[in-house]
């Protein structure tokens, strides 16, 4: 979205030059990737099509078509004059008397007071200010450190040469007369620059620098971010370029060659927003030219209104846990993903670097069961267990025939799902993020933060969204009332840092509320299934009957001599409890449950069930998937019949949304036929695919939002493959036949649920009895 918004702004400034772009494939796997890219293009309304080697040659008449298998052509790919764009933006702001610029000024320090920015100290004087935006590119970490904040990026080398003059390019008489070529399988690109060809590479070894080591302007031969070229790192890539464009490049000279510096982040996304360490200190870093204007508008809206129009979830600098903000982690992750810039990356793909940093106290037990770990908030979380492989045959679970669909997935996960529904499962929930909120002002504070009322009896709980100032989702979480002035907030591993920043940002300044992160002090184990009560009763003398321990309540009990907190709640739609235990007792509690569970058919169950199949069968929403700032609780099916009297963030916008017909309704869809028309192979969506009408047209609601798959996964207990998606009201009707596009094919889907009624056990009898 940032790229699309930026291109729109460049076009309005008459600086966007559409030259087109063609990505070429040398390997069959890349052609398959291009089919996936067609799906993405359709989802976002971008014109694109697959082209043959001959058609590539027609677009770019100087490539050797014999070494390529095909291409992916996008006519809207553009180039811009970034210097001119910056000049126009600056002049526009100066004309409004909104900007003053000062050249050749060095920042020496940033001053803070009580956790907020107060001043910038320069070699020419001190400037008092209430807000500072760090938009300093590769130097951003250095500047942030002056205030005690972190901007987790590393300056990294991107090698580029300029070859010319080349007559066929000079003959165009333009800066760029041919489409940009991306030679994807060798991680290179070739782009015309007037009469020369620019050749860039992401295939060389990762070469990192530290912000403090970048030479000054005075010490630089060209510019501080244009370092001396290391030819030995480019030799192999030059051979690849000569192979692709032999007639063009073999006789031309290298006019210019640099090791240019760009900013890399641990996950490859920009770093935007208010830093979690210092209030009103903002980051606008790791932004590419293609995202520049969009990022600028996002930051301006964020600072002015408290929330930007485009959902910042993936780019929010607050998304990183403390362990992921240091230079060691940043470099390790950037070293891994640098050569994946043009790589084929699966949406479920896991990192190889920086693993086993956060492990549950019973990690050795899950290891012994053959756990396949995915990372969640830095924690090693079992996704399925190879020890459960015999369950696949027991339940007759089918594998997925297409390798891409089966990658980072196992039929064991669906078998674990069915075993939990039949018997009882234990789930490692150590990545849960837990905050304790206490003090005389705790209730009033939480009431201002949450949509649903926290003024419940001690021992009760509330599931509630948190809204931003415009009524969109900021979070969704569960809160237990542990005492008159004591509450426990539980949120997901992928949103912990953002949620903590949001809560701390709004803490009262009078000291009446204490906010403590308990995540590293508590381990959590989930026990669910029809035999869950039998299992937990075997290790506790507490009354676990429906009357003694109703759904949605919490109690502190003993497992033998060990104190634990039981919370009767379910994200998988079955009877059971979340069990919170001090970290030092976690192993003993796991062992006690596992021993007792042998008499009840206990199965270790991975997050593939907890976070996907069990969740989807119940239609439960997920922050960052179904829930984001662009949608509201009415559209998500989370609006309750009444609104609490207490004021809360986003209340005015929420009340307004309740008064109007929703522009979209979150629905559960079932895939009616998995067989692809192109090759007869059964296919299984992974998420983000466009939902189309039965005639293949894009679906867009009245707010301009396209319909696409927000979550996808198996529904083993209902015997269907399930998709969640927002649909305009005219399409959000049970029984409506639509289509989903995947891998370039269209598959029939049907609306099974419009709203929040679960497809599995719609009356919630299993988990509430």
Gist of the model:
The chain has 769 residues and is an alpha+beta fold. It contains 22 helices and 36 strands.
Keywords:
six-stranded mixed beta sheet; alpha+beta; 25% helix; 769 residues; globular; nine-stranded mixed beta sheet
- Tell me, briefly, the overall form: globular
The radius of gyration is 28 Å
Number of helices: 22
How much strand?
A: 25-35%
- Counting DSSP E segments of at least 2 residues, the number of strands comes to 36
- Average pLDDT, rounded to a whole number, is 96
The helicity comes to 10-25%
* Unreliably modeled segments: none
- How far is it from the N-terminal to the C-terminal residue, by CA? 45 Å
Strand order of the largest sheet: 3-4-2-11-12-13-10-15-14
Q: Given the helix and strand composition, which structural class is it?
A: alpha+beta
Quaternary organisation of the protein chains: single chain
Task: Profile the largest sheet.
Answer: 9 strands, mixed
């Amino acid at each position: 979205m940032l790229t699309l918004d930026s291109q729109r702004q460049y076009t309005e400034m008459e600086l966007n030059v559409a030259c087109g772009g063609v990505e070429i494939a040398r390997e069959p796997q890349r052609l398959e990737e291009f089919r996936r890219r067609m799906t993405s293009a359709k989802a976002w309304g971008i014109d694109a099509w697959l082209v043959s080697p001959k058609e590539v040659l027609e677009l770019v008449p100087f490539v050797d078509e014999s070494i390529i298998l095909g291409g992916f052509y996008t006519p809207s790919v553009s180039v811009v004059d970034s210097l001119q764009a910056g000049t126009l933006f600056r002049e526009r702001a100066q004309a409004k008397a909104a900007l003053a610029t000062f050249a050749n000024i060095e920042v020496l320090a940033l001053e803070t007071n009580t956790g907020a920015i107060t001043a910038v100290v320069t070699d020419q004087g001190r400037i008092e200010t209430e807000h500072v935006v760090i938009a300093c590119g590769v130097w951003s970490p250095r500047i942030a450190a002056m205030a005690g904040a972190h901007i987790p990026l590393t300056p990294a080398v991107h090698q580029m040469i300029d070859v010319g003059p080349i007559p066929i390019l000079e003959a165009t008489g333009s800066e760029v007369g041919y489409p940009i070529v991306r030679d994807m399988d060798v991680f290179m690109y070739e782009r015309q620059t007037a009469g020369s060809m620019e050749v860039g590479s992401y295939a060389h070894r990762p070469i990192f620098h530290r912000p403090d080591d970048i030479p000054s302007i005075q010490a630089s031969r060209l510019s501080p971010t244009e370092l001396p070229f290391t030819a030995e790192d480019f030799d192999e890539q030059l051979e690849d370029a000569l192979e692709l464009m032999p007639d063009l490049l073999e006789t031309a000279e290298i006019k210019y060659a640099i090791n240019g510096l760009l900013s890399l982040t641990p996950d490859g996304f920009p770093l935007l927003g208010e830093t979690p360490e210092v209030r009103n200190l903002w980051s606008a870093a790791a932004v590419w030219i293609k995202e520049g204007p969009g990022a600028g508008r996002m930051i301006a809206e964020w600072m002015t209104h408290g929330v930007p129009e485009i959902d910042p979830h993936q780019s929010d600098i607050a998304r990183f846990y403390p362990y992921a903000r240091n230079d060691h982690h940043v470099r390790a992750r950037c070293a891994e993903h640098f050569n994946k810039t043009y790589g084929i990356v699966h949406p479920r793909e896991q990192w190889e670097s920086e693993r086993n940093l956060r492990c549950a106290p019973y990690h050795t037990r899950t290891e012994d069961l053959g756990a396949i770990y995915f990372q969640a908030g830095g924690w090693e979380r079992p996704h399925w267990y190879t020890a459960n492989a015999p369950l696949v045959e027991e339940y007759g679970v089918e594998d997925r025939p297409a390798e891409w669909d089966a990658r980072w997935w196992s039929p064991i996960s669906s078998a674990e799902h069915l075993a939990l529904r039949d018997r009882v499962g234990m789930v490692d929930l150590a990545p849960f993020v837990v905050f304790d909120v206490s003090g005389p002002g705790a209730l009033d504070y939480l009431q201002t933060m949450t949509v649903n009322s926290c003024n419940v009896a001690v021992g009760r709980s509330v599931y509630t969204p948190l809204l931003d100032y415009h009524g969109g989702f900021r979070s969704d979480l569960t809160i237990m009332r542990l005492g008159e002035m004591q509450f426990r907030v539980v949120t997901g591993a992928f949103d912990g840092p953002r949620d903590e920043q949001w809560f701390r940002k709004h803490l009262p300044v009078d000291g009446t509320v204490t906010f403590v992160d308990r995540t590293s002090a508590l381990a959590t184990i989930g026990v669910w299934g029809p035999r869950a009560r039998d299992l937990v009763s075997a290790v506790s003398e507490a009354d676990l009957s429906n009357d003694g321990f109703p759904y949605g309540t919490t109690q502190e009990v003993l497992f033998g001599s060990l104190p634990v907190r039981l919370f009767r709640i379910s994200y998988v739609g079955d009877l059971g409890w979340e069990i919170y235990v001090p970290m030092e007792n976690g192993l003993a509690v796991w062992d006690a449950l596992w021993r007792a569970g042998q008499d009840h058919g206990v199965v270790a169950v991975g997050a593939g069930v907890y976070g996907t199949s069990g969740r989807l069968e119940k239609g439960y929403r997920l922050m960052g998937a179904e829930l984001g700032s662009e949608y509201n609780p009415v559209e998500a099916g989370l609006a309750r019949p009444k609104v609490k009297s207490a004021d809360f963030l986003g209340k005015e916008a929420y009340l307004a949304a309740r008064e109007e017909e929703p522009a979209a309704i979150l629905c559960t869809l079932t895939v009616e036929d998995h067989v692809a028309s192109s090759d007869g192979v059964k296919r299984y969506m992974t998420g983000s695919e466009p939902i189309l009408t039965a005639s293949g047209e894009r679906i867009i609601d009245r707010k301009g939002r396209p319909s696409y798959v927000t979550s996808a996964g198996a529904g083993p207990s209902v015997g269907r493959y399930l998709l969640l998606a927002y649909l305009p009201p005219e399409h959000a009707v049970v029984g409506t036949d639509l289509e989903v596009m995947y891998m370039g094919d269209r598959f029939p889907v049907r609306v099974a649920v419009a709203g929040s009624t679960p497809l599995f056990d719609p009356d919630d009898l299993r988990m509430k009895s």
